[in-house]
Design goal:
Largest sheet: 7 strands, parallel
Strand content: 15-25%
Radius of gyration: 25 Å
Number of helices: 17
Number of strands: 22
Strand order of the largest sheet: 18-19-17-16-20-21-22
Structural class: alpha/beta
Shape: globular
Distance between the termini: 38 Å
């Protein structure tokens, strides 16, 4: 590897460099004709100082303040939680800075994707039926309905480990000891569900169980109904069956109000059953099964048809981030974001704790002052509530993040924000509001990747681009979650959950722009149903509503 590929400076104003491979103490590396002798080992993804930094002075990366030195730092030392502390810049209302370099989209101007067209003009990338409890009391009945429908209709997951368990049982019965059982390797065999889906134009039936709907505060119930309404009105959803107990906080009328907020002319099949009115479990479950089956018959009549790329809405997400996230995968999908915005589509950037330190840039990019003020208010209010609970944004990085080079929240945030590209901020949304405008939308959510992905889809994302440096299987019940690795080592190690490798950027084999274009082409194939992403193939149906308490 050449010297230029051993290290990289992310921004010309930075006083740290990033190691692209493990570097040893005593190594001398060169960046732009300046040589640096390392005073200690620098693991890949970590950063080392390029100037002498006095205690209390700024650490700069991505061109912004990301920390301050706890002690005097000479040139060539690794920054760590021991020698620097989180710090981020202040922000205030400035003038609008909405100019951006619009990328060339000529090769996609005439392209379409094949999606499911809805009565409200939206276009889905999939076609699902939902079965949802309004309250956790109905979760057990939801499970009974799941057992009754999935296998019989051909939507059950492949039980690929059952035969392995049967094999272990036979070994035990034949007298094998624990050591022999532990030495037994799993051998993949060709297994099918045994039944093809009865309804070929329906991708599946999804069951959104949760632990909300009652108890807690009334705001929790309202917010939950808003999220569920976002899923019911979602372009990837054909219709829904709702189970209500009857006495819970999340009343049916509340759900109907939230649906009306999102789609005043709502025309999808919606079956609502209340157990306390219907009586016996048998009546409730059998009625739900009958009505769901009838809804599936109608939903199956909808077939994929061409739609312009402007009908796509992409969620931008990261989880299990590493020191390469802000250098490879995040800026790559940021360029994909810019391409889609230029084509008239919508993108969603969320995870507000991971925008700490870049508030000024994002607020300046808002198309008007009201949106800038709303963004800053949401950030300030959220962080203040976190600090009241004893855990501000500065505590967002996980142990895995820190181990892989994301030492402070500001470092993590500056890299995470790259997912949003460079286009103007068209709108600022609070959870669980729905996207109504094309362009870049900021959505207030936690940094928790499942809560945030759940929220992005609830706000309208029909495909999610999810970057990871450490590896995570996160998916969603109704929207394909495309997993992108920040480095090739991860891609090779976890190919069963990773769809796209952007480690090519780190290796110098591909530019950020080339990777972004490749990703957009992949999204078009996924949106058309031509590619089944790993999260869908693995049945990774993660769904966690956010209670508006403190979650980072």
């Amino acid at each position: 590897m050449s010297e230029a590929r051993k290290i990289i400076q992310v921004h010309s104003a930075d006083n740290v460099l990033v190691a692209l491979q493990d570097l040893a103490a005593g190594d001398t590396v060169v960046w732009k004709e300046q040589s640096y002798t390392l005073l200690e080992p620098i693991p890949a993804k970590h950063k080392f100082t390029t100037v002498n930094i006095a205690a209390g002075n700024a650490i700069t990366m991505y061109g912004v303040l990301v920390g301050k030195a706890k002690q005097d730092l000479p040139v060539g030392v690794r920054i760590s939680t021991e020698n620097i502390t989180h710090a981020s810049g202040t922000f205030s209302l400035h003038e609008r800075r909405t100019g951006w370099h619009i990328p060339d989209t000529s090769q996609w101007q005439q392209k379409t994707f094949n999606g499911y067209h809805r009565a409200d003009g939206s276009v889905g990338t999939a076609n699902y039926w939902l079965v949802i409890p309004l309250v956790f009391c109905e979760n057990r009945n939801i499970e009974v309905i799941r057992e009754a429908l999935l296998e019989e209709l051909g939507y059950a997951r492949v039980k690929k480990y059952n035969q392995f368990t049967q094999h272990l049982a036979k070994l035990y019965q034949s007298g094998a000891d624990t050591a022999a059982i532990l030495e037994t390797d799993y051998v993949a065999t060709e297994i099918t569900n045994g039944k093809s889906p009865l309804f070929p134009n329906i991708d599946g039936i999804k069951f959104l169980t949760h632990d909300g709907g009652c108890g807690g505060i009334r705001q929790d119930a309202q917010t939950l109904c808003g999220l569920l309404a976002g899923y019911i009105t979602h372009p990837n959803v054909a219709g829904a069956t709702i189970l209500s107990l009857g006495c819970q906080n999340a009343q049916v009328t509340m759900l109907q109000e939230e649906i009306n907020k999102r789609d005043k002319e709502f025309a999808k099949p919606l079956f609502i059953l209340e157990q306390q009115k219907l009586g016996t479990e048998t009546t409730l479950v059998s009625t739900a099964i009958k009505q769901t089956f009838a809804g599936l018959v109608e939903a199956n009549k909808n077939k994929r048809k061409p739609a312009p790329l402007s009908k796509l809405c992409i969620g931008l997400e990261c989880g299990g981030s590493d020191g390469f996230s802000g250098i490879s995968a995040n800026p790559a999908i940021g360029y994909t974001s810019d391409l889609l915005v230029a084509l008239g589509g919508s993108v969603i950037l969320s995870e507000f704790p991971e925008l700490c330190g870049v508030e000024q840039e994002l607020s300046d990019r808002c198309v008007d002052e009201n949106k800038a003020k709303r963004f800053m208010h949401l950030m300030q209010t959220y962080n203040a509530k976190a600090e009241e609970a004893g855990s501000g944004f500065y505590m967002n990085p996980s142990p895995g993040n820190i181990k892989d080079g994301l030492i402070t929240d500001a470092i993590k945030s500056a890299g995470a924000a790259k997912k949003g590209g460079t286009s103007p901020v068209a709108d600022v949304l609070d959870y669980p509001e729905k996207v109504h405008k094309p362009g870049l939308n900021l959505l207030c959510t936690p940094g928790n990747d499942v809560e945030s992905t759940t929220a992005e889809v609830g706000s309208g994302a029909t495909v999610v681009l999810f970057t990871t440096g450490l590896g995570t299987p996160t998916g969603n019940p109704i929207a394909p979650v495309v997993k992108l690795s920040t480095n090739t080592v991860l891609y090779e190690r976890m190919k069963d959950i990773i769809d796209i490798n952007t480690g090519t950027i780190i290796e110098g084999k591909e530019t950020i722009e080339e990777a972004g274009e490749r990703i957009l082409n992949y999204v078009i194939e996924v949106a058309s149903g031509n590619i089944q992403v790993s999260a869908v193939r693995n049945g990774q149906d993660d769904f966690i509503p956010w209670k508006r308490g403190v979650s980072l």
